[in-house]
Every structure is written in structure tokens, then in C-alpha cells.
Sequence to fold (165 residues):
Amino acid sequence: MARWYPLEAVDERFFASAPYVYSFPVELDVAPVRVWQALTSDESLAAWPLGVRSLRWLTPRPFGVGTRREVVLPLAAMTIREEFFRWDDGEGYSFCVREANRRVLRQFAEDYVVEATPTGSRFTWTIALTPAPWARAPMWLTQWANPLMFGLLPRAARRYFAAHP
Fold:
């Protein structure tokens, strides 16, 4: 049985105050409704060629603020439990990680925004985090690599929607 470690809850202010914030907008040739359908599907990001092994919604539909899900991230050798603190149907959502099976993070949140463009949509993914005290030095030393690693999501979005318009 996995042991769970709590993370500190955050809200939308965390995206302005976190020590590490990364934002990745990506232009997609699909309608915003299609992006929203993919983000809120049963598989969600687990269907994208990304590095999410599985995703399980823990809260029944309809989803909204307070919705929870569990995500297995094999590249990080981590499983996390998320709770949504913003949910704007068709436009985006934000969540924070409430528990993880590894003590790597003190705070972690993600924000997803879906906007219409003249040629389809813009999907902006923002991640904000505070590492656990023991992980501050390694995080600082490897911070140059974080945009490369986190930048996988926009590339995965392009590949997914090219194959599933």
C-alpha cells in the first residue's frame, strides 16, 4: 500500500508567488470545444503521448471546483492526487496537488486555459511549484532543464490533436 504525503493547498495567487513558474502556450488547429473535450475526458492527458501512465477521476461528473483525480507519472516515479480550485466550463481549470507518494514537493499547481483563435485555439498550460526543503538545491541546479521537460506537454498536445482532430 502506497504511503501518501500531504502538500500545502494553494489557490490562483500561487501562480504569481511560486518560486518556480513555467507557462507554455500552444496554438492548435482544432476548435476550443475539442480541446476542452480532451481535457475533461475520462482519459484526459493520459491519452496524449506524454508521460502520464494513467489518470483516474475520483469525483463523479459533473466536474467542478472540488473535483479530485489521481495521476500516475512514470517519468517522475510519482503518483499524485489533485484537487481543482477553479473550473470554468469550456475555458479552463486550475488544480493543486494535495498528496503525493514521494516527498519532493511542498506546493504544486497547474492552470489550463483554452481560448479561441482565428485558426482554432490556444491552449496555455502553466505550472507553479515549491520544492520540498531537501529538494531546493537540486531543483535550483537543474532549473535550466525544467522548461525542456515541462515543454513536453505543448508538443504532446500538437501530436495528439494532429492525430485526433
Remarks:
- The two ends are 39 Å apart (CA to CA).
- The chain is about 20% helix and 40% strand.
- Residues 77 and 120 are 35 Å apart (CA to CA).
- The mean pLDDT is 92.
